[in-house]
């Protein structure tokens, strides 16, 4: 139980790194708001509160430099008049960035960035003419100022601790209900009041530690005051349903150097009639309510508090869990699914061998039940990994503002669908590509205000971020109402770079042309800026998307704007797949990429420009031959063609035979050994065989990049290994191309 | 101070090679191997090792043997390196050797070139020479990528005639 001070210091520091992220995000948000409503004192106070919390927490962890910088700003803001200064928002942005850098430096144990320039700007804030009327000597009672200010600003409603007044009157309806429920279940409902040590320099983190300790003893029903209020650093009250005695609780909570004093008070003794209550449980549950309202204390029940109690309750119910632990559970679920298919196979063999055995039915029942539970389990675990895209979107207001300022544009960001859920792993991976796209939209997409006025558009451009579900996918859209992508210009550039030939270029469709922007080194920007135009970016976007088995498409209208649409899989871990054979090897592709399965004859395959195509009803499909090249003579041979959809286009995969449909748990290949991008992962089947999952966008791209010179040899042999080629060369003799 | 090295010895071709016993995870018979497309010749593919996907390299091909077919004595040495598992196909795995540290000589300079730069030393056991291998070099991505001819050929064929 006891920890050395060192360990606690480390623990506190880790906690600080974590909590500071949220505070920094809040700081950025507040600064953005302030920029919209310059001089709003309420927002400035909010900024100061955030900075104050950061300062205190940082000081507690011994992060002196950070805390000093924060202190400077807090001081400056408390000087009258400074708050109205127009540069406050600017400085808040700068300081948020500085904090991020400093925290990163602390984490690495590296050198701290210089903050001299920044502190100069902060000092200017108070020296500026707008702040002439300095009422108090800054140095003399700087500390006092900040403290009283903090206390004042948060409208202290809660009574000071130690007075006999019971602050417990304002439990919300759901909380009171929970208390009575706990009481009727025979538990003590106690109120634990923890007075924080005034010398504890990091009370918010300390509070979390206390909360952790308390929640080990039983469900925490309510916590007061709110963590955001100023009083939070002085005391905390918990309402707890527990079986422990008051002494035990007090002992648990008393964490030296953090907690000064613990008082435990019994609110509701366990209902002696708990059993009886159970017997008369047929009574409508409404009867609980009056009992609930009179139970907690004799004081009158106040009306529901204005600050939404619902959100508060939700906040207390959120667990922070390391992603690795959830991945572990997910892995185990994956193993279970493999186990399930093993069982299924064993049972079907059993039924074949003993068709009259009565046990078969029992097995089948157990199997169905188990797979149902397993499905639910899988879905629940997946849900844990899902986070709202807002986590990603909320960093963009700041980015758009910065980029727009740098290129001298007026841009507004419109965000929608931010509560759409996405797998955390995908969300993290997609952050960088999305940043590129948003940057591009601001710096390339949106025109300057003059240009826009000439085109009859409002001077302020709009960048839109949108997210929504579509089937098994999540769509992210980045759109702008700018000038659109100039297709002829791209065509010209592609010619110049030698990516296409003049005759090909003339035939390119618009979407083909737009695809060029995803090629490495392709940029039509006239000048290279710090932000974009280096020609890196779009190909980075493309390669990340490949890895995620996601696709992207572009929609552009000259003069009206461009929209990039990213289609992401809901999750990376488990897919429904179609299994097929190529050259005696089993492969799988995601089932949702398969549009249809067609049977045809070799004679139906035509050559167009050295590519093999198939006319299927009224559309022409480019064919991808995964196995051996087309046989020379046999025109009557039958073919299996899987029609797949990659991006917006259909292709036909020629395969040897079909195996079936199965749920696959994707496991990564050791990508340090295998550098291929044709395969996105592997999976283990019920009988222990390993099946490779093809990465369709990469397969298609390989084929597109191979410019065939000989008729018929276009896109064949993609999946042949070296040994296969040798074998084919030997068996087919002169006919082979090995 | 005669420190002893514990080495797992195995045969590839006519030579005996050795890896430190600490880097060995287990030795298994060769199961069904799933080939991975677009990979160099000596990367056989992947196997299912009790639910884990493990990549397998054929050491015989890596060390330049042309015709390498699988026989019953063939084994896969599953080694652990940098937290990941990898399988090495060898002709047979023989014994655990104890080699005094002073009986190990640095590799001759010629070994430092070409595909054999993964040799850390030559150990002498009872008149035999054991070639000691360095896992990190054997499995380093760089050495796999920079493989001379095989990979290039495979790529060229796969892409008919690249850009």
Describe the protein in words.
The complex is a heterodimer of chains A (738) and B (163). Chain A has 738 residues and is α+β, with helices and mostly antiparallel strands. In chain A, a hairpin with a 2-residue loop joins strand 8 (461-470) and strand 9 (473-480). In chain A, helix 1 (5-36) runs antiparallel to helix 2, helix 4 packs antiparallel against helix 5 and helix 13 (323-353) packs antiparallel against helix 14 (359-385). The N and C termini of chain A lie far apart (70 Å). Residues 129-168, 273-314, 526-536, 709-715 and 732-738 of chain A have low confidence and may be disordered. Chain B has 163 residues and is mostly beta strands. Chain B has one domain (4-162): CheA-289, Domain 4 (OB fold (Dihydrolipoamide Acetyltransferase, E2P)), CATH 2.40.50.180. Chain B has helices at residues 59-62, 135-138, 141-145, 150-158, and strands spanning 4-12, 15-20, 24-29, 43-49, 52-58, 75-81, 84-90, 92-100, 104-105, 119-125, 128-133. In chain B, strand 4 (43-49) and strand 5 (52-58) form a beta hairpin. The A-B interface holds A 335, 338, 585-586, 667-670, 672-676, 678-679, 682, 684, 688-692, 702, 705-710, 713-714, 717-725, 737-738 and B 31-32, 34-41, 43, 45-48, 51-55, 57, 84, 86, 139, 141, 144-145, 150, 153-154, 157-163.
């Amino acid at each position: 139980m006891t920890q050395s001070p060192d360990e606690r210091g480390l623990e506190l520091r880790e906690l600080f790194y974590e909590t500071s992220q949220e505070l920094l995000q809040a700081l950025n948000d507040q600064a953005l708001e302030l920029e919209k409503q310059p001089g709003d004192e309420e927002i400035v106070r909010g900024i100061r509160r955030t900075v104050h919390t950061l300062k205190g927490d940082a000081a507690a962890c011994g992060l002196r430099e950070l805390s000093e910088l924060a202190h400077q700003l807090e001081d400056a803001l408390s000087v009258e008049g400074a708050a109205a200064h127009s540069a406050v928002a600017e400085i808040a942005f700068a300081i948020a960035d500085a904090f991020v850098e400093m925290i990163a430096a602390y984490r690495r144990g590296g050198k701290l960035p210089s903050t001299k320039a920044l502190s100069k700007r902060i000092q200017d804030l108070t020296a500026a003419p707008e702040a002439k009327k300095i009422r108090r000597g800054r140095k003399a009672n700087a500390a006092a100022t900040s403290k009283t200010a903090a206390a004042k600003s948060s409208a202290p409603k809660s009574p000071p601790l130690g007075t006999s007044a019971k602050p417990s009157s304002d439990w919300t309806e759901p909380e009171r209900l929970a208390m009575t429920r706990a009481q009727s279940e025979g538990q003590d409902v106690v109120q634990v009041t923890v007075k924080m040590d005034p010398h504890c320099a990091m009370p918010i983190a300390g509070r979390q530690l206390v909360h952790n300790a308390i929640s080990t003893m039983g469900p925490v029903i309510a916590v007061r005051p709110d963590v955001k209020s100023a009083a939070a650093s002085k005391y905390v009250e918990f309402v707890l349903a527990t079986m422990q005695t008051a002494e035990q609780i007090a002992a648990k909570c008393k964490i030296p150097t953090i907690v000064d004093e613990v008082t435990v008070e019994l609110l509701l003794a366990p209902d002696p009639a708990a059993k009886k209550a159970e017997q008369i449980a047929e009574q409508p549950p409404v009867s609980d309510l009056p009992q609930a309202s009179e139970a907690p204390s004799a004081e009158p029940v106040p009306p529901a508090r204005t600050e939404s109690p619902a959100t508060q309750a939700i906040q207390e119910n959120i667990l922070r869990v390391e992603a690795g632990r959830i991945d572990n559970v997910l892995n185990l679920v994956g193993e279970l699914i493999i186990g399930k298919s093993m069982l299924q196979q064993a049972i079907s063999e059993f039924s074949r061998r003993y068709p009259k055995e009565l046990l078969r039915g029992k097995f089948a029942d157990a199997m169905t039940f188990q797979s149902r539970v397993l499905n639910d389990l899988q879905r629940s675990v997946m849900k844990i990994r899902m986070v709202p895209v807002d986590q990603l979107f909320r960093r963009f207001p700041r980015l758009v503002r910065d980029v727009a300022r740098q290129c001298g544009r007026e841009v507004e960001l419109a965000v929608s669908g931010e509560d759409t859920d996405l797998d955390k792993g995908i969300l993290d991976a997609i952050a960088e590509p999305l940043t590129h796209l948003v940057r591009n939209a601001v710096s390339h997409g949106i025109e300057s205000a003059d240009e826009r006025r000439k085109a009859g558009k409002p001077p302020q451009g709009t960048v839109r971020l949108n997210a929504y579900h579509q089937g098994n996918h999540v769509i992210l859209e980045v759109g702008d109402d700018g000038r659109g992508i100039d297709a002829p210009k791209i065509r010209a550039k592609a010619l110049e770079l030698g990516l296409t030939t003049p005759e090909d270029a003339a035939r390119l469709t618009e979407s083909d042309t737009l695809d060029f922007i995803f090629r490495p080194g392709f940029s039509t920007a006239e000048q290279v800026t710090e932000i974009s135009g280096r020609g890196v970016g779009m190909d980075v976007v493309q390669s990340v998307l490949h890895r995620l088995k996601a696709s992207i498409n572009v929609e552009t209208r000259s003069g009206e704007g461009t929209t990039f649409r990213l289609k992401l899989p809901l999750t990376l871990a488990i897919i429904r797949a179609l299994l097929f054979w190529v050259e005696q090897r089993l492969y799988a592709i995601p089932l949702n990429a398969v549009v249809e399965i067609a049977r045809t004859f070799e004679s139906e395959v035509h050559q167009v420009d050295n590519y093999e195509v198939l006319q299927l009803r009224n559309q022409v499909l480019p064919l991808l031959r995964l196995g051996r090249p087309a046989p020379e003579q046999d025109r009557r041979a039958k073919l299996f063609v899987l029609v797949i959809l990659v991006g917006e286009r259909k292709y036909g995969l020629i395969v040897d035979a079909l195996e079936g449909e199965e749920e696959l748990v994707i496991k990564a290949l050791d990508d340090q050994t295998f550098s291929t991008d044709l395969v996105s992962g592997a999976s283990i089947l019920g009988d222990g065989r390993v099946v490779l999952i093809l990465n369709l966008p990469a397969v298609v791209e390989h084929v597109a990049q191979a410019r065939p010179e000989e008729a018929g040899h276009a896109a064949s042999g993609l999946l042949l290994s070296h040994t296969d080629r040798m074998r084919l060369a030997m068996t087919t003799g002169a006919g082979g191309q090995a | 101070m005669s420190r002893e090295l514990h080495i797992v010895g195995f045969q590839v071709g006519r030579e005996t090679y050795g890896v430190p016993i600490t880097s060995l995870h287990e030795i298994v018979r060769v199961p069904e191997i799933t080939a991975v497309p677009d990979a160099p010749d000596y990367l056989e593919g992947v196997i299912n090792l009790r639910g884990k996907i493990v990549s397998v390299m054929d050491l015989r091909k890596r060390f330049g043997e042309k015709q390498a077919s699988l026989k019953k004595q063939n084994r896969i040495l599953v080694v652990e390196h940098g937290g990941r598992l990898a399988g090495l196909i060898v002709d047979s795995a023989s014994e655990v050797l104890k080699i005094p540290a002073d009986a190990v000589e640095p590799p001759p300079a010629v070994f430092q070139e070409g595909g054999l730069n993964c040799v850390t030393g030559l150990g002498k056991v009872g008149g035999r020479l054991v070639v000691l291998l360095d896992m990190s070099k054997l499995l380093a991505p760089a050495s796999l990528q920079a493989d001379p001819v095989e990979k290039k050929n495979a790529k060229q064929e796969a892409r008919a005639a690249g850009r």
